[in-house]
Amino acid sequence: MSHVPHELAEEFPDKQDKLHALKTTNSHFARLADSYHEINRRIHRAESEVEPMDDLALEDIKKERLKLKDEIAGMLAE
Question: For site-directed labelling of 9, which of 17, 20, 49, 76 has its Cα 20 to 30 A away?
Answer without folding.
Answer: 49
